[in-house]
Write a structure and sequence with these properties.
By secondary structure, the chain is mainly alpha-helical. It contains seven helices and five strands, in the order βααβααβββααα.
């Protein structure tokens, strides 16, 4: 379990708060773009400010977003993500949480799909250096559950070497934000058609 204040491990209540695609999108937008108001987030996500405000309050109750005390006034409340990273280990949840875990995972899948589509749509306007490093590779491996866990740990360790979004770890000149999505997806076993 992490003690990093920029990292949250989901428990039952935070999981329930995030088991909604719009809440995942709001939290992702705050992490990606920084503090914002419900109105600005509504414009960014093409939803009403009232809907954004409602879902932000639900995220606040779960401790996932908070007021940005240095901004705002009586009319405009500014929000910021309370953590830079979210982690979930489904082994921490019982059978009674299975539906909520599945809904959360669907919300994450939806957010990844939306982000991928936005990036592919923006590809033509990217600088050539960035356009040429874009990579959408997939590999079909045969591994045991233990090997899959080892693979995930090793990949996460490599990615953490390149995290420049933490205080005291400045990015080199020319660095831009990139999204690295790690997915280890057990594949359904095809039944033999014969």
């Amino acid at each position: 379990m992490t003690t990093d204040p920029n990292h949250v491990v989901l428990d039952s209540s935070t999981l329930k708060a995030l088991a909604h695609p719009l809440r995942v999108a709001l939290l992702g937008a705050l992490r990606r773009h920084g503090p914002s108001t419900a109105t600005l987030l509504g414009q960014r996500l093409d939803i009403s400010s009232g809907s954004a405000s409602y879902h932000l309050r639900q995220l606040e109750k779960a401790g996932l977003v908070t007021d940005d005390a240095g901004r705002g006034n009586a009319r405009d409340r500014w929000w910021r993500a309370a953590h830079r990273m979210t982690e979930m280990d489904d082994r921490d949840f019982g059978d009674g949480d299975a539906e909520v875990v599945d809904e959360y995972l669907r919300s994450i899948a939806s957010a990844y799909t939306r982000q991928l589509e936005q990036t592919v749509n923006a590809r033509a306007t990217m600088q050539p250096d960035w356009r040429h490093v874009m990579d959408l590779s997939d590999y079909l491996l045969r591994v045991t559950p233990d090997e899959a866990r080892t693979l995930a740990m090793r990949l996460h360790a490599v990615v953490r070497e390149f995290r420049y979004d933490r205080p005291g770890n400045p990015a080199p000149a020319g660095a831009e934000p990139v999204s690295v999505v790690l997915q280890i997806l057990p594949q359904p076993v095809d039944e033999d058609p014969s």
